[in-house]
Amino acid sequence: MLLWAKEILGALLILAFFYMLAQLAALALGKWGKRLASFTSTDLDDRILQRIIPHVSRLLITLGFYLAAQSLPLPGKAVPVVSGIIFIVLVVIVFNLAYHILDELLKWYLAGKQSADNALLSRQMVPIVEKIATLFMMGIALITILTHFNYDVFSLVTALGIGSLAIGMAAKDTLAHMISGFTLMLDRPFHIGDRIKLSNGTVGDVIDIGLRSTKIQGLDATLLIIPNADLCNSTVINMVRPSSVTQGRISVGVGYGSNIEQVKNLLVELAREDAETIEEPGPLAQFTSFGESALNVVLLFWVSDPNRIGAVTDRLNCAILNRFRESQIEIPFPVRTVIMEKELPCPTE
Questions:
Q1: In this structure, is residue 162 part of a structural domain?
Q2: Three-state SS string across the chain, please?
Q3: Pick from 194, 215, 238: which residue ends a domain?
Q4: Which of 15, 102, 202, 225 lies 20 to 30 A from 96 at CA?
């Protein structure tokens, strides 16, 4: 009976020691930790401290219960059962502690780093990374618990590997799109809101980059849903990066009797007069070819916003037509000359 009393007293002393240690740790982290964190330029450490202090306190108290249960003279298999339950609680507390730290790191990253174009992770990828990291930590916690109870972890890992292989073979196309989605999110050839031009000539704005597909809103307000694997393996022109300056092009034909230098100067002058064309690079007119019924000239101009190309082209077309009429510069119609030969009479014998 005296032995039982000593062991119970020892367990109580262990609990009391770890309870006091938990209070001291919470006090030290709350007072000295926050004081040290105040010297840093970011509030990340302050937020991490605020979230982990309760978990550190619970961790120390639970550890005291675990050690106290080990020292108690419980009958039969009660000791491994009680200590096993407390060990599971310990693992859960450690998992929550790590999860809260990860969550604060990702929130800090989203708040401070996503404005940079060279950010490693896109905003769409952060929740995916958080889920993968959470699953990874849950796997480690499960393996730790199974190892504690002397369970053969190797057989579990083997079964999971075979199951993953079977799933991968059955859903290879979906996995290909998902891997391509990760590639797009990491490589970042375009961002949400960018205007891009696809290999088939379709122009649209990126509105979402998902794991399986990318959504693009066309200029005619249609929604294009393109599998990531197809988008990753094709040529895509980003019309706003590294610069949003976009080129416009107007082709016009003038009569063969026109002064080509006058035509080129007039086109450049009209482009410079438009308020939305930029000065550098400036507009440029080029005599490109001899047509069947016209001299072909192309006007190149640049605007700072790709969304305004259509409006600027419309204004310049109207201005060119009016100025050509005022300057009596002919825009000829296609001309065909047909020579009708008189049918000769058939020779008579």
A1: no
A2: CHHHHHHHHHHHHHHHHHHHHHHHHHHHHHHHHHHHHCCCCCCHHHHHHHHHHHHHHHHHHHHHHHHHHHHCCCCCCHHHHHHHHHHHHHHHHHHHHHHHHHHHHHHHHHHHHCCCCCCCCCCCHHHHHHHHHHHHHHHHHHHHHHHHCCCCHHHHHHHHHHHHHHHHHHCHHHHHHHHHHHHHHHHCCCCCCCEEECCCCCEEEEEEECCCEEEEEECCCCEEEEEHHHHHCCCCEECCCCCCCEEEEEEEEECCCCCHHHHHHHHHHHHHHCCCECCCCCCEEEEEEECCCCEEEEEEEEECCHHHHHHHHHHHHHHHHHHHHHCCCCCCCCCCCCCCCCCCCCCCC
A3: 238
A4: 15
Q: Do 96 and 45 fall within a single domain?
A: yes
Of 143, 117, 12, residue with least CA distance to 72 = 12
**Whole-number CA gyration radius for the chain:** 37
Q: Is the pTM of this model over 0.85?
A: no
More confident residue, 312 or 339: 312
Distances (CA, A) of 194 to 94, 177, 189, 190, 237: 42, 21, 10, 6, 10
Amino acid identity, position 279: E
Does one domain contain both 263 and 140? no
- Provide the residue range defining the domain that includes 139: 2-155
pLDDT tens for 287-333 read: 999 988 899 999 999 998 888 888 999 999 999 999 999 999 988 88
Look at residue 319 in the predicted model and tell me its pLDDT.
94
Is 92 a domain residue? yes
What CATH number is attached to the domain comprising 252? 3.30.70.100
In this prediction, residue 277 carries a pLDDT of 92
Q: Looking at residue 204, which CATH number applies to its domain?
A: 2.30.30.60
What per-residue confidence (pLDDT) applies to 170?
59
Per residue in 58-77, pLDDT (tens digit) is 888 888 888 887 777 666 66
Q: How many domains does the chain have?
A: 3
